[in-house]
Every structure is written in structure tokens, then in C-alpha cells.
Amino acid sequence: MRELLLAAMVVLFAAPHAHPWQWPVEEPVVQIEFGERVDEVIHRWIEFAGGAQMVFPISDGTVVDVLHETDLPTGQGNVVVIDHAQAFRSIYAHLDRTGLPEIGQIVAASDPIGTAGRSGHVSTTALRLAIIDLQTGGYVNPRLILPDLADIVRPRIVAVQAEDEFGVTPLARGVELPPGTYTLVARIVDTATVAGLTKGPYSISAFVDGQNTFTIALDRLSASPDGLRLGTPPVDPNEVLRSDQTFVLGDLVIGNASVDIEVVASDFRGNERVWSAEILIANEDVQQEP
Fold first, then answer.
1. Residue 103 included in any domain
2. What would the pLDDT profile of 139-174 be if each residue is shown by its tens digit?
3. CA 268 → CA 18, 33, 77, 116, 187, distances in Å?
4. CA 239 – CA 221 distance, rounded (Å)
5. 209 and 263 share a domain?
6. Which residues of 92-117 are buried (b: 16+ CB within 10 A; e: fewer)?
7. Would you say residue 284 has pLDDT above 70?
8. pLDDT tens-place string over residues 28-49
9. Is 151 contained in some domain?
């Protein structure tokens, strides 16, 4: 799926004479990924740690808005908004109050537009980057546009479990379940480069007896008449994504035979982790009274 998405994005972003995209800081330390649910908020941005680094535009553009924390307390602190060619807009939040550009200023990728700071609702120095596709009005995962970062660490599938009205059953090879319909749930994390923090994966798939029963790539977030839609294929994030990188992977139907379950998680670089188990049918024979 990632290959298909990237092929589509190459066509979308490959305009003649387009300037290359770049990360907004020299040493990008990603601590929250696009699409994560943190404190009940679905993140439409990537959040960086790494201290008070100088911030640059991700590409040449025009500054269309500068929001000062003292003028408009939104929780995002000091914000700079830049329009780019190909109808994309980048947003930089939690900036320090000094060194901000002026509205209407034309900036090159080499021009600093501020410094990562502590403005807004953050407890440490941070920077948030969001990218809007102005043609659709939705947010896109910045990783679809920006260069790949070095990463050889695979996500971890911490736990897989089946839930029903009677409770939660942790799944592993040889676990028995009575016949019925369950909700398949998995907690999946990716190791951040910040000590003690984990972030979410990029894509997840589930297979039951070899059949793909669930797939999502966390590549976009948009509004619809029915509410927010996250990923490809688009889903209601409230139905799929819980806090602490826990994902609802759909229904698991247990019949009269054992089933093989496989959960696959990958990060944006394609580092992949696979969890698999055969789930047996619980013996529900009841002894007849004499």
C-alpha cells in the first residue's frame, strides 16, 4: 500500500521547476507522528523535540499569516503560515516570539522564520508542522512530502486482544475463544528518538485466515459532512483510534474451526513487524446431569 500511495504522491508533487522539500529543522527529532491521538486530540501535524532549533520553511513560499500568542490564544502559540507552489500550505506552531517574518514576505527555504519555542500549550520546547492541501482542504502527512529520515527500527506490536461484552482476552498462539463475534484490538508503537517516548506507526493491516480484513495508512485527515475522516481508506478516527496507540482492527468472527490471525505494522520507511497466532476453539462441552 505504501508503494501505491508514494507513486501517487510523486505524480502530485513532481511539478516542473519545483523546489525540493526539506525538514523545517536541521536535526528533526519526531516525538509525535501525524494521525496519533494524544489527550483525545487527533494530531494533524508532526511534533518535533530537539530544543530551540532554528526553523526554516519546508520550501520557498509566501508568508500569508503570522499569529501571535498574545493576540490570539489558540494553544498553538506563535504561528507562521506559508503558501507554496502546487497549492500547499505549511503551518509552524509553538515558535518563540522573536524572529518571526512579516505577512506578505517572500521566503526561500534557506530563510529562517523563527525558532522552536514554548509558546502555546506545550511543556517543553517544541515545534509543530502541519501541511494543508488547498485543493482538498485536508491535512496531509508531512512524511509524504519531506525527505525520508534514517530509521531502521521496526514498530512493536505490544498486545493483540479480542473484546466482547464479557471482557477482554489477550491473544497469543494457542489461546482458546468460544465461537462468537469479537472486536480485534492491537496496541502498536514505534520507538521515538526521545527517551521514554513512543509514537504511532504509519500503516496497519490485519488478516484472518489469509484474508485482509483491515487496512489503514495514516496519510491524511479531512473533514466531511459526517465528521473527521482519517487515513486511506478514510475512516472515522473515533471508531479506529484510541489513545496510547491502540487501534480497533474490526470484527473477529470465531466459528467452529480455529483461525489464523496476522497483524502487520510498518513505519514510513517500510520497517515492518508481523504478529501472528492460531486461535483455537474453546471446548464448551457441558456435562449432562444424570
1. yes
2. 999 999 999 988 888 999 999 999 999 999 999 999
3. 23, 10, 29, 24, 18
4. 14
5. yes
6. bbbbbeeebbeeebebebeeebbbbb
7. no
8. 989 899 999 887 889 999 999 8
9. no
Assign residue 32 the CATH number of its domain.
Answer: 2.70.70.10
**What HEC string does 141-192 produce?**
CHHHCCCCCCCCCCCEEEEEEEEECCEEEECCCCCEECCEEEEEEEEEEEEC
Render pLDDT for 189-209 as a digit per residue (tens, 0 to 9). Answer: 998 766 667 888 999 999 999
Neighbours of 75 (CB within 10 A): 12
The whole-model pTM stands at 0.86
Range of the domain at 26: 15-144
Rounded Cα distance between 138 and 230, Å, is 10
Q: Rounded distance, CA 76 to CA 61, Å?
A: 21
The position carrying cell 473515533 is 238
